[in-house]
Write a structure and sequence with these properties.
Layout lengths: L7 H19 L3 H11 L3 H8 L2 H24 L7 H12 L3 H13 L3 H21 L4 H19 L8 H9 L7
Length: 183
């Protein structure tokens, strides 16, 4: 039985899936590209050929991040009676539960501080998410913006180790309780 070689688009997709997790945990470094290559069983130069640069790999990961968030929003809002924003928020919490989206977004924002190309892509992701939410919702731009602000708080809470699975209000109550404070 002959082994079928993977196509470049398939390898690229595999690399993005791996890189999202690796970058979330380790940043968009050359060492991260090596980790991606190692997990794929290819050379680091091959990964660079697929994406052109570390920045190219990070931008591809941001494309996938946007796609996953928008897809989760659409999936969560399907067959919802009434306003879908609460269902969209719940779908978002489910999407970020493993920490990959959270870590990748934080690493991308850190890279954006010194890389205008990454910053522009991060801004485009936010705009696309707002547009998608407005298209799916009847709540209006202010409610959608408030939901994105709440989602950002959820992401931040998750990044610092808070359990957000029961919702942000529960996580905030836990955060504010005296037993979690250290002085």
């Amino acid at each position: 039985m002959a082994t079928q070689r993977s196509t470049a688009p398939r390898r690229r997709s595999d690399a993005v899936a791996i890189a999202m997790r690796v970058i979330a945990d380790h940043g968009a470094t050359t060492a991260s590209v090596q980790k991606v290559a190692d997990e794929m069983g290819v050379s680091q130069p091959y990964v660079f050929r697929l994406f052109g640069s570390r920045r190219g790999l990070l931008l591809a990961c941001l494309d996938e991040l946007e796609s996953r968030i928008r897809g989760a929003m659409r999936d969560s809002s399907r067959d919802v009676a009434g306003e879908p924003l609460p269902a969209i928020r719940a779908g978002y919490r489910n999407l970020i539960a493993d920490g990959v989206i959270t870590g990748l977004w934080l690493q991308a924002c850190a890279a954006a501080r010194s890389d205008e190309v990454v910053a522009a892509r991060c801004r485009a992701v936010i705009a696309a998410i707002l547009d998608e939410a407005e298209a799916l919702s009847s709540a209006g731009p202010q409610a959608v913006t408030a939901s994105l602000a709440r989602a950002t708080l959820v992401l931040t809470m998750q990044a610092i180790g808070m359990d957000v699975s029961a919702g942000i209000d529960t996580a905030l109550t836990t955060l504010r309780s005296t037993e979690t404070r250290t002085h």
